[in-house]
Write a structure and sequence with these properties.
heterodimer, A: 134 residues, alpha/beta, five-stranded parallel beta sheet, 5 helices, 5 strands, 18% strand, B: 483 residues, alpha+beta, f41 fragment of flagellin, N-terminal domain, Heat Shock Protein 90, five-stranded mixed beta sheet, phosphoprotein (chain A)
Chain lengths: 134, 483
């Protein structure tokens, strides 16, 4: 069996964190952080995290600011937003520049999230395979 | 220009004043003329009086010497007294003829003639007195006084009053009087003539002044008219500018009202949807967790737990859909290149009005099988259909019917919203898209709904039409170009 994908979920609401962990535990190894600063330190410690999903509205810094800082250090990782707000202009431009791959809405749709992650990881490994083949 | 006006004004006022003065002097001269005429008449009649009284004196004294009746002598001396101003005239004033004449003003030459006549008259009176005394027997002596007494000599008296020298002496009185009258007449006629010439000149002056005044006024009116027309033109121009400004102001006000409303609505719905979505997320998570649990460990009453789980899922989905629809309404962006799915927008609008429609309205959806995508602004198109729908609901009776139909027409989509409500009065049909036009009672509506609706449709290059029958219902047809 291949190593389970390691995923970091940054969210300030404890219920959401616990539920997310419970739901996605089957598919991924889920790590959590309460806000951006903590999220960055988790990323430092756990370098093999491949997927980062962040809430938008959080204390200290919002989701986009956190992902901006994280992407500077870890450009290889897949970043997503999961928000209860509708898509704002900030998120719109983050999608346009490729800072985030997708924006999910709350209440979350498990299948949608799983499908998106699978697709992005696979296309990435395909690219890698292609590169090594060449 | 102002100084020129002032000058014109002063000139015209001066001319008017001059005409006034001239008219006044003509009036004064006219009264002088009348006075001259009356003086001439008086002098003439006085000359006549003098002549007549002279004749009378002759007649009285001749009558006396012929009849010897004392009454004639009495009449003679009475008349003499009146003439000399000792006794009053029939009009009651005692004034000598000479004084009366002098009082009316006569020239020196006339006065000389008059004095001459008086002297001659006095001489005649002396002759006549001689005749009277001869009747009494008194005769003049060497000292020229009636000092010689004798028998009364009627013949002598008669001779004195009828001989040639008496007639000649009488003529010498009448001649200067005639001369006086002639001179006086010439003088006054000359004066009158002069006055008339003066009047004539004054009249001409007045005419000249009035004419030049009229000319000047005409010129001023011409100049002023030009200026007034220019000013009117300017006024018209600034009026138009003001109107434009007013229209701009109205539009700006509308935008402000609209944007303020939408901004607050956007903030509110964004906040509310966030607050609702989060707890929905809990339920969704719990539902998924429970589903996993039952999958892994099984349920003792699987049909019941499945029903419960599905109910949870259905509830969360419905609530999430409502929140999503709400968000569509207040999407605050000004882009007009979004993909707008007309059917899903219409459904969102129906969800938003669900509570108003429930139980009292039968909603019939007659959608075209094909889905339409219009390029535009999702939020604003939501506003359009929600507004038309809410108007339809407002117009509905207790049990109403609303039909929403969509049709494809070459490059357009037609959305037809029909209600069986109270309808729109024919005279209002042309006004309903005007800003601030409303038939709702004050406080219930600002009259902006259809104005905003039609301006949004304009921006989407579409059209909105209304067909309405009073008390039967309204049909709203919205045509939008398909992307």
């Amino acid at each position: 069996m291949i190593d389970r994908v390691k995923l970091l979920y940054v969210e300030d609401e404890p219920i959401n964190r616990k539920l997310f962990q419970l739901i996605f535990d089957k598919d991924y190894e889920v790590l959590t952080a309460e806000e951006g600063v903590q999220g960055l330190s988790v990323l430092e410690k756990e370098q093999d995290i491949t997927v980062v999903i962040s809430d938008m509205n959080m204390p200290i810094m919002n989701g986009i600011t956190f992902i901006n800082k994280a992407k500077e250090k870890f450009p290889e990782k897949k970043f997503y937003i999961l928000t209860a707000y509708m898509i704002s202009e900030e998120i719109q431009s983050a999608l346009a520049t490729g800072l985030i791959l997708k924006c999910f809405g709350k209440p979350f749709n498990r299948n949608e999230i799983v499908a998106a992650i699978e697709q992005d990881i696979n296309s990435n490994s395909l690219e890698k395979n292609n590169l090594s083949n060449n | 220009m102002g100084r020129l006006h002032q000058m014109f004004f002063i000139l015209i006022a001066g001319m008017l004043a001059l005409s006034g003065c001239l008219a006044f002097s003509i009036f004064r001269d006219a009264s002088k003329l009348r006075q001259l005429e009356s003086t001439r008449y008086k002098l003439f009649s006085m000359g006549e009086e003098l002549k007549a009284s002279s004749e009378n004196l002759t007649n009285y004294c001749r009558s006396f010497v012929l009849t010897r009746e004392r009454v004639w002598e009495q009449k003679y001396f009475d008349l003499l007294d009146v003439r000399n101003g000792v006794k009053p005239w029939p009009n009651g004033h005692a004034i000598s003829l000479k004084d009366s004449l002098l009082k009316l003003g006569i020239s020196k030459q006339e006065f000389v003639k008059l004095m001459f006549a008086e002297d001659k008259s006095n001489e005649l009176v002396a002759t006549e007195k001689r005749a009277f005394n001869a009747m009494r027997g008194l005769f003049t002596g060497s000292n020229k006084q009636f000092s010689i007494k004798g028998a009364p000599d009627t013949l002598m008296a008669r001779r004195i009053l009828f001989d040639k020298s008496y007639m000649a002496a009488k003529k010498t009185i009448m001649d200067p009087i005639d001369d006086f009258r002639g001179m006086m007449n010439n003088r006054i006629s000359a004066e009158i003539k002069q006055q008339e010439v003066q009047n004539d000149m004054l009249m001409k002056l007045i005419l000249l002044t009035l004419f030049s005044g009229a000319l000047l006024s005409f010129y001023v009116i011409l100049v002023l008219r030009k200026k007034i027309i220019v000013q009117l033109f300017d006024l018209e121009k600034s009026n138009q500018e003001l109107e434009l400004t007013l229209q701009d102001l109205k539009k700006t006000q509308l935008k402000l009202v609209k944007s303020a409303k939408m901004a607050s609505l956007g903030t509110l719905t964004a906040g509310v949807s966030h607050e609702i979505n989060n707890p929905l997320n809990y339920i969704m998570g719990a539902y998924l967790g429970l589903s996993n649990y039952f999958e892994n460990y099984g349920s003792q009453e699987e049909s019941i737990t499945n029903l419960l789980l599905n109910s949870m899922k259905a509830g969360v989905d419905k609530a999430a859909q409502i929140v999503k629809g709400l968000n569509q309404f207040s999407r605050d962006n000004s882009r007009f290149d979004e993909d707008c799915d007309i059917h899903s927008i219409l459904d969102n609008c129906l969800i938003m009005h669900a509570s108003q429609l429930k139980h009292k309205t039968e909603v019939k959806k007659d959608y075209c099988l094909e889905d339409f995508v219009v390029k535009g602004n999702v939020g604003k198109l939501h506003q359009v259909f929600a507004n038309v729908l809410s108007n339809a609901i407002y117009a509905l009776p207790e049990q109403g019917k609303i039909c929403i139909a969509t049709r494809k027409e070459t490059q357009n989509v037609k959305v037809i919203i029909t209600d069986n409500g109270c309808g729109i009065q024919t005279e209002h049909l042309s006004q309903i898209t005007d800003p601030f036009f409303t038939t709702k009672p004050p406080g219930e509506g600002a009259g902006l709904g259809l104005y905003i609706t039609s301006s949004i449709i304009d921006k989407h290059l579409g059209q909105i039409e209304f067909e309405s029958t009073l008390h039967a219902g309204t049909k709203v047809i919205i045509t939008l170009p398909i992307a």
